[in-house]
Design goal:
This protein is an all-alpha fold. It contains 8 helices and no strands. Helix 2 packs parallel to helix 4 and helix 7 packs antiparallel against helix 8 (about 110-120).
Protein backbone atom coordinates (compact mmCIF):
# COMPACT_ATOMS: atom_id res chain seq x y z
CA UNK A 1 0.00 0.00 0.00
CA UNK A 2 2.84 2.39 0.82
CA UNK A 3 4.64 1.60 -2.44
CA UNK A 4 1.45 2.33 -4.36
CA UNK A 5 1.01 5.64 -2.54
CA UNK A 6 4.64 6.67 -3.15
CA UNK A 7 4.24 5.87 -6.86
CA UNK A 8 0.88 7.60 -7.11
CA UNK A 9 0.33 10.76 -9.12
CA UNK A 10 -1.70 12.06 -6.16
CA UNK A 11 0.30 14.54 -4.10
CA UNK A 12 -1.91 13.76 -1.11
CA UNK A 13 -1.17 10.01 -1.32
CA UNK A 14 2.57 10.60 -1.59
CA UNK A 15 2.59 13.12 1.21
CA UNK A 16 0.60 10.84 3.52
CA UNK A 17 2.93 7.90 2.77
CA UNK A 18 6.04 10.00 3.41
CA UNK A 19 4.62 11.31 6.69
CA UNK A 20 3.76 7.76 7.75
CA UNK A 21 7.25 6.51 6.90
CA UNK A 22 8.89 9.39 8.74
CA UNK A 23 6.94 8.56 11.89
CA UNK A 24 7.03 4.75 11.54
CA UNK A 25 10.21 4.02 9.58
CA UNK A 26 10.34 0.22 9.71
CA UNK A 27 9.23 -0.05 6.05
CA UNK A 28 11.77 2.48 4.75
CA UNK A 29 14.46 -0.10 3.87
CA UNK A 30 11.96 -2.06 1.75
CA UNK A 31 10.91 1.11 -0.07
CA UNK A 32 14.35 2.66 -0.39
CA UNK A 33 14.39 2.60 -4.19
CA UNK A 34 11.14 4.60 -4.36
CA UNK A 35 12.33 7.01 -1.68
CA UNK A 36 15.68 7.65 -3.34
CA UNK A 37 13.90 8.19 -6.64
CA UNK A 38 11.54 10.67 -4.98
CA UNK A 39 14.50 12.46 -3.41
CA UNK A 40 15.58 13.35 -6.97
CA UNK A 41 12.25 15.09 -7.63
CA UNK A 42 12.45 18.74 -6.64
CA UNK A 43 9.02 18.78 -5.02
CA UNK A 44 9.67 15.68 -2.94
CA UNK A 45 13.35 15.98 -1.98
CA UNK A 46 12.83 17.15 1.60
CA UNK A 47 10.01 14.79 2.65
CA UNK A 48 11.79 11.82 1.05
CA UNK A 49 15.02 12.80 2.79
CA UNK A 50 13.22 12.99 6.14
CA UNK A 51 11.74 9.52 5.64
CA UNK A 52 15.16 8.10 4.74
CA UNK A 53 16.79 9.88 7.69
CA UNK A 54 14.25 8.35 10.08
CA UNK A 55 15.52 4.85 9.22
CA UNK A 56 19.15 5.48 8.31
CA UNK A 57 20.45 3.11 10.99
CA UNK A 58 18.33 0.24 9.66
CA UNK A 59 19.36 0.60 6.00
CA UNK A 60 22.08 -1.77 4.83
CA UNK A 61 24.94 0.41 3.49
CA UNK A 62 25.55 -1.80 0.44
CA UNK A 63 21.82 -1.74 -0.41
CA UNK A 64 21.86 2.03 -0.13
CA UNK A 65 24.83 2.27 -2.51
CA UNK A 66 23.20 -0.08 -5.03
CA UNK A 67 19.91 1.82 -4.98
CA UNK A 68 21.65 5.19 -5.30
CA UNK A 69 23.65 4.09 -8.32
CA UNK A 70 20.59 2.56 -9.99
CA UNK A 71 18.67 5.81 -9.57
CA UNK A 72 21.48 7.72 -11.25
CA UNK A 73 21.68 5.48 -14.32
CA UNK A 74 20.41 8.35 -16.50
CA UNK A 75 21.12 11.16 -14.06
CA UNK A 76 22.37 14.63 -14.85
CA UNK A 77 24.55 16.89 -12.70
CA UNK A 78 21.53 18.15 -10.74
CA UNK A 79 20.50 14.57 -9.91
CA UNK A 80 24.02 13.75 -8.72
CA UNK A 81 24.12 16.90 -6.62
CA UNK A 82 20.69 16.35 -5.10
CA UNK A 83 21.41 12.70 -4.27
CA UNK A 84 24.87 13.46 -2.87
CA UNK A 85 23.21 16.05 -0.62
CA UNK A 86 20.70 13.50 0.64
CA UNK A 87 23.38 10.86 1.24
CA UNK A 88 25.64 13.29 3.10
CA UNK A 89 22.77 14.51 5.26
CA UNK A 90 21.72 11.01 6.29
CA UNK A 91 25.38 9.98 6.73
CA UNK A 92 25.22 7.20 4.14
CA UNK A 93 28.97 7.36 3.57
CA UNK A 94 29.35 4.12 1.58
CA UNK A 95 26.60 5.18 -0.82
CA UNK A 96 28.03 8.69 -1.10
CA UNK A 97 31.43 7.21 -1.89
CA UNK A 98 29.89 5.10 -4.67
CA UNK A 99 28.07 8.11 -6.13
CA UNK A 100 31.20 10.25 -5.99
CA UNK A 101 33.18 7.45 -7.67
CA UNK A 102 30.65 7.16 -10.49
CA UNK A 103 30.56 10.95 -10.86
CA UNK A 104 34.34 11.09 -11.16
CA UNK A 105 34.18 8.72 -14.15
CA UNK A 106 31.51 10.71 -15.99
CA UNK A 107 32.13 12.40 -19.32
CA UNK A 108 29.99 15.32 -18.13
CA UNK A 109 32.11 18.09 -16.54
CA UNK A 110 29.20 19.14 -14.30
CA UNK A 111 28.90 15.65 -12.87
CA UNK A 112 32.67 15.44 -12.36
CA UNK A 113 32.40 18.78 -10.52
CA UNK A 114 29.97 17.18 -8.06
CA UNK A 115 32.57 14.49 -7.43
CA UNK A 116 35.33 17.03 -6.78
CA UNK A 117 33.13 19.14 -4.52
CA UNK A 118 31.96 16.26 -2.35
CA UNK A 119 35.39 14.68 -2.19
CA UNK A 120 36.76 17.97 -0.86
CA UNK A 121 33.95 18.58 1.61
CA UNK A 122 33.30 15.02 2.83
CA UNK A 123 36.44 13.07 1.91
CA UNK A 124 37.32 12.45 5.56
CA UNK A 125 34.01 10.70 6.17
CA UNK A 126 34.17 8.35 3.20
CA UNK A 127 35.28 4.73 3.48
Amino acid sequence: MLAKALSSSSAWDRSAALDFLRLLPEDVPKLLDLLVDLSLSSGWTLPAREAIRSARKEIDPSQFARVALECLSNGDAEDYLRLADVLAEVEAWEALSAVIGRAAESGDPGIRGVSRSYTESHGGMLP
